[in-house]
Amino acid sequence: MKKNQLLSLVCAALFFMGCGEKPAGVVDLTVELQENPIGLDEQHPRFGWRIESDQDDVMQTSYRIMVAPTKTDLDKAENLVWDSGVVSSDQSTFVPYAGSQLESRKDYYWKVLITTNKGDSLWSDAAQWSMALLDDGDWQAQWIGIDSSLNATDRLTGDSRLAARYLRKEFPVEGNVASARLYISGLGFYECYLNGRKINEDIFAPTATDYTKSVNYNVFDVMEFLKDKQNTIGVILGNGRYFSMRLGDPAAGLLGSLRQFGYPKLLAQLEITYKDGSKTVVVSDDSWKLTTNGPIIANNEFDGEEYNANYEMKGWNENGFDDSAWMQARKVGAPGGELVAQRNPNIMTMDTVDPVSINQLNDSTYIVDMGQNLVGWLAVTLKGQKDKPIKMRFSETLKDDGSLYMDNLRGAHVTDIYTPASDGLFSWEPRFTYHGFRFVEITGLNYKPELKNFKGKVNYDRMETVGSFESSDSTINQIYHNAFWGIRGNYRSMPTDCPQRDERMGWLGDRAMGCIGESFMFRHALLYEKWLKDIEQIQSENGCVPDVAPAFWTFDQHSGNVTWPAAYICVADMLYNQYGDSRPIKEHYASMKKWMDFIRDTQMKDNVVINDVYGDWCMPPESQELIHSADPARKTDGRLLATSFYYRLLNIMSKFAAISGNEADIPAYQELAANIKSAYNQMFLNAETGQYANNTVTANILSLMQDLTPDSLQGKVFENIVEKTQGEFDSHVSTGLIGIQFLMRGLTEHGKGDLAYTIATNRTYPSWGYMIDKGATTIWELWNGDTADPAMNSGNHVMLLGDLMTWYYENLAGIKSDPQQVGFKKIVMAPYFPDGLDWVNASYESLYGPIESNWKKGENGLSWKVVIPANTTASIRIPAASADKVTESGKPLLQNPAVKSVNAADGFVVVEAGSGTFDFLAGK
User: Fold this and answer.
1) Less Cβ around it within 10 Å: N or C end of the chain?
2) Torsion angles phi and psi, residue 281, rounded to 5
3) What is the CATH number of domain 7-130?
4) DSSP assignment of 22-44, as one string?
5) Number of H-type helices and E-type strands within the chain
């Protein structure tokens, strides 16, 4: 790990690769210290590791964790702050620290000894983490900046403009440095330099919050950047969400009313410790110098960034720069929110894209096609003319005449401007803005540029890609590609709805179910943990949970809705089921219960929830020019939507109560759930026909999949789903955001996986394949995004994915966590093998290691390679009439020592197995 990476993530940054020396006789076992979601400011960090072995059926039998204040102490097992002792357990994730109280600023070293059922015993290498400033009194720094506009180009109404703030401070370093640590927060965004070098690769730091509730700070080891004697620290402050993109403009409309938190400001504390124990502390105060006359003359997330090279200040962040014309920084008020060490990583450039073509639109305009709708910015190397601005304007699609289609961006100007200070070559990319785009309009050049002059930078929250999926069907594969790009493009320190227009908000409803499928693709736990805190922080006093978090709009999003705020509970449930992490449930249980009580007490009548705000949002309308259907027959009763969701949430809360030690709450949840189920079926179910409400697919699938349908009527209700889908909608999707959360798995689990496969592979409207045929490389906001009113037709949304990505992994690949042994401690491998799909190759990097499912249909039957990581078990369901029809590596199943049992029933052979690599062949 690089020394300048976030120390708040030292035990949370991917994996500590490598292992200790192997004892004699052990040739196949390694231990990797694993992802640990540790915040510097918590007293009970959690430990994790994973085991890799060439042997089959490997299970951990015990562990021992040691923690010490120095590496030497750890190696000698002296002065330990915690020794867990030998614990007989197979737990290897989220093991909580239970030692002495941890101290501010301190470094801690740890390692783990594991034993397995194979008789192996192995110590891991040591890993390190560092604590933050745990007490308010540890801070000596003050918030600094200037709470006013200084530049003539600034604009404080409507589409705001504000130049970046540049701050600097020179300081001495005298002595042999033992450590140097920087604690920093800059609002809205900051970039920090030491002696002219940027201290990290992060962008858009720190992650966005409701700044009146909490403010994140980051921690860096900066020792490698220091010089003997004189040093300079420099910081650039961008506006981000802190200085609002829209300031009190009545013409901007409801969605243009954004909160203004204040002018950009800085808090920084650099602590340098010398080998003799002495210390130098450099803090932000009014001794720093500040200017707004730098080259970044405007920066705005919606509108772009403007850079004038005439105002460049060579060496401004290095020693000896003449800052006599700069003003003294001023002490300013704190943002108001609690200052906390940031747990989740910042955004980074995670990928790059080369353009595929350049088209000359007219004498002065060129259109660059990136070939992919992406989220980030454009880095350029171009030849400019002095004082002639070069403009870059961004869009997702083109008009028929080849010009940019901008209507769907609403009020966002999405324009970057670079003004050269001289004739000749320059290289530039912005710092404090981003765009959702495939196409870029370039004006201001006097020649046609080349493809090599442009590079698309793909920016999103730093996280590992953990999933892969490929199949024999090109439509299935392209949808996965589109989903992958759309999902990561909307990770913006919160999961957002869209990245291109003047919105880009954390709508809860978009992720209530989609977060599950995303977890197979990205290691997103820390992002979603952070989002849960955002949601709780803006819960109202009466318990109401908003539809959007964090809170950046001025109008109140506490609507009393159920289906959107349901994500609060659903995300916590996802973190538990997919990662095995119960901490979010325990941390947020009281808040979640408060919301459930609020809905019960204020939004319910006769055991039916009467309030719904959005309906089955964006279901395919009867006319492709519409955004929302006007046909009552296509609309699902909002009371049904809200009540069915609330019923499911009651059952989840019963589980949460048991997990969090609130068992006394369970009887009340169960009693209310029983009353709701009775009232729901009395109001909405026609028992004679098996139809719910007006028989929409959404009404029926919600009732069936959320366990509201009586057992005796489940077959009838499902028949109506199938008949409606195949008949009235010609085997196409007919649901919106709500129904699509259950459609694909619901069809498959009830025996119509072939219909689900047809829906997934359709290329005609409405379908994901239709989007592809219309040129989409991400997922649209609307099924009819090419024809609907541009007021709402984002080309990069993920809400209509619903449970599709979950279906890919759990149903097509057959990779699923057992609900009783969560976090993939036990893996359920039970693919559906649809006609028309010849093979699937999929993998998922679980916390225990890689899980693979590669199956292929052939002349000799079904071949299926399955990989199960060490310290887990699996239940593997193979389509075969009997066990003697199935072999593993050419041998009978029970000859493999990792196979525990084999059972055959209903056309399937179920193999219970330990870890290992299995090559099954199910003969015809």
Assistant:
1) C
2) -120, 120
3) 2.60.40.10
4) PPTT--SEEEEE------TT-SS
5) 14, 53
Number of alpha carbons in the 13 Å side-chain half-sphere of residue 805: 31
DSSP letter string, 460-510: EE---B-EEEEES-HHHHHHHHHHHHHHHHTBSSSB-S-SSSS----BSGG
Element (H, E) at 271: strand 265-274
| Spatial separation of the C-alpha atoms in residues 132 and 559, rounded to whole Å | 38
Tokens linked to 467: 């999933």
pLDDT of residue 18: 28
Neighbours of 883 (CB within 10 A): 17
Inter-CA distances, 164 with 151, 242, 922, Å: 10, 13, 65
Evaluate whether 7-130 and 816-923 have a shared fold: no
Is the Cβ–Cβ distance between 268 and 195 less than 8 Å?
no
Q: pTM for the whole thing?
A: 0.95
With b for 16 or more beta-carbon neighbours within 10 A and e for fewer, the 69-93 pattern comes to beeebbeeeeebbbebeeeeebebb
Between CA 37 and CA 862 the distance in angstroms is 40
Task: Assign a CATH topology to domain 816-923.
Answer: Maltose phosphorylase, domain 3 (2.60.420)
Q: DSSP states of 797-826 as a string?
A: --GGGTTHHHHIIIIII--EE-TTSTTTTE
Residue 715 in tokens: 């077959």
Angle at 269 between CA 268 and CA 274, to 5 degrees: 150
How distant is the alpha carbon of residue 469 from its chain centre? 19
In whole angstroms, what is the distance from residue 268 CA to residue 217 CA? 9
596-624 per-position pLDDT tens digit: 999 999 999 999 999 999 999 999 999 88
pLDDT of residue 148: 95
In 10 A of CB 321, how many CB atoms?
18
The CATH superfamily label for domain 349-461 reads Galactose-binding domain-like (2.60.120.260)
Task: Please tell me the distance from the alpha carbon of residue 534 to that of residue 482, in angstroms, as a whole number.
Answer: 28
User: Residues 121-176: pLDDT tens digits?
Assistant: 999 999 888 999 999 999 999 999 999 999 999 999 889 999 999 999 999 999 99
Instruction: Identify the CA nearest to 829 among candidates 879, 784, 790, 794.
Output: 879
**How far apart are the C-alpha atoms of 646 and 640, rounded to whole Å?**
10
What are the φ and ψ backbone dihedral angles of 584, each rounded to 5 degrees? -60, -35
**Domain residue spans in the chain?**
7-130, 139-344, 349-461, 467-813, 816-923
**Using CA atoms, how far apart are residues 832 and 682, in angstroms rounded to an integer?**
35
> Do the Cβ atoms of 286 and 328 come closer than 8 Å?
yes
Q: According to CATH, what is the number of the domain 139-344? A: 2.60.120.260
List, in order, residues 6 or more apart from 65 with CB less than 8 Å away. 47, 82, 83, 84, 95, 110, 111, 112, 113
Distance of CA 563 to the CA centre of its chain: 20
- Nearest CA to 917 among 831, 829, 809, 816? 829
Residue 271 and residue 183 in contact, taking contact as beta carbons nearer than 8 Å:
yes
- The 3-state DSSP class for residue 719 equals helix
The two three-digit tokens of residue 856, written as one number = 């292929």
pLDDT, tens digit (0-9, with 9 covering 90-100), for 437-477: 999 999 999 999 999 999 999 999 999 999 999 999 999 99
Per DSSP (E only), the strands in 578-708 are 604-605, 608-609, 685-686, 691-692
Q: Work out the angle at residue 152's Cα, subtended by the Cα atoms of residues 151 and 154, and round it to the nearest 5 degrees.
A: 70
591 is written with which tokens? 């808040």
Whether the pLDDT of residue 19 is over 80: the answer is: no
CB atoms within 10 A of CB 517: 24
C-alpha closest to that of 190 among 216, 211, 152, 226: 216
Q: What residues pair up with 114 in beta bridges, in sequence order? A: 63, 122
